[in-house]
Amino acid sequence: MKVLLTGAAGFIGTVVGEALDAGGHEVVLVDALVPQAHAAGTEPPDVHVLDVRDAAQWKGLLDGVDVVCHQAALVGAGTDPADLPAYAALNDLGTAALLAAMHSAGVSRLVLASSMVVYGEGRYSCAEHGDQPARTRDTEALEAGEFEVSCAVCGQPLGWRPVGEGARLDPRSSYAASKVAQEHYSSTWARQAGGSAIALRYHNVYGPGMPRDTPYSGVAAMFRSALASGHPPQVFEDGRQMRDFVHVRDVATANMLALEAVLDHAPGSFAAYNVCSGQPVSIAEVAAYVATGSGLSPEVTGDYRLGDVRHVVASPELAAAELGFRAQMSPAAGLVAFAEDPLRVATSPASGQ
């Protein structure tokens, strides 16, 4: 199989590329290699350097390609409205330009790196009143240390439930909105071009090669950066927020399975799958795992960030049933090992997963 891989020099793209190589596939590596994401002298020699937004640059690279694995994106929290143009340009326009180039080249299969952020808040249920839509937490409650989402009927804290792929998409940040747009462009392209696309909704990805010293690199790497500076990890709210953390090697496995599966999907089809460990973990537990052996204990600050969701935990069942994907690395084992994993230097929003 011949695969064109975008974001090939990024955190996730590098590991996906290694898996493709090990599988004996022919791989065309593409990355913008923006300086903010890639330290000088670390550029892979076999990467085609181009801006995904420039459709003209794709000429020739897509010849003979069976499937595109699209990992390239501007990633991060995306909570500053000033960042909206950057996310729209790199993620939305970049994906649209790639899809147009694929259509011109006759490439009709796509695997897209999406994200759990498309869901916004997770799924909630009240013991007395059943399933409840997630309400935005107000500043007054957060200031008072009331972090849980409450029932609209009785006002009691809601319990979280696993989120399936059929949940309503409710982006809460610029980055999240751009990932929803990427999915919509991909599904529209599949219908219009007679192609097929799979979106992989990554939950919190971690592992060796993750960027450090940047708010765009994910909470696990931020905890690592604090420890490296001799400071205890700072945990927001009460630390009981629930998430799913999935190791980058498991993410690469999910991509390999999706690349094979999409070849057999019907023309015009689009499918989305959670890529997760299936083993929920609290943010306080994540901090404790990463701090193992450091001699420093995480500090629960009670601080909060407007726009943060309380709980979002994935259901792994559809990916298991249709892709055959089950994560092999548990957060308990993987996050402790992550405390010693090498990280990459990045100082601002990174292009590439």
What does this 3D model show about the protein?
- The protein has 353 residues and is α/β, with parallel strands linked by helices.
- Helix content is 30%, strand content 19%.
- It contains 9 helices and 18 strands.
- The chain has helices at residues 11-22, 84-105, 139-143, 174-193, 219-228, 248-262, 283-290, 317-322, 331-338; strands at residues 2-6, 26-31, 48-49, 67-70, 109-115, 123-126, 130-132, 159-161, 196-202, 204-206, 211-212, 234-235, 242-243, 245-247, 269-275, 281-282, 299-300, 344-345.
- The protein has a 7-stranded parallel sheet, sandwiched between helices. A 3-stranded antiparallel sheet has the order 7-6-8, with no helix packed on it. A two-stranded parallel sheet has the order 10-14.
- Helix 2 (84-105) packs parallel to helix 4.
- The chain is globular and about 60 Å long.
- The two termini are 22 Å apart.
Q: What features would you highlight for this structure?
A:
7-stranded parallel sheet; globular; 353 residues; 3-stranded antiparallel sheet
Q: Structural class of the secondary structure composition? A: alpha/beta
Number of strands: 18
Low-confidence stretches: 347-353
Q: How would you describe the shape?
A: globular
Strand proportion, as a percent range, falls in 15-25%
Helix content: 25-40%
Radius of gyration: 20 Å
- Helix and strand element order: EHEEEHEEEHEHEEEHEEEHEEHEHHE
| Tally of separate helices | 9
Distance between the termini: 22 Å
Largest sheet: 7 strands, parallel
Summarize model confidence as the mean pLDDT: 90
Strand order of the largest sheet: 3-2-1-4-5-9-15
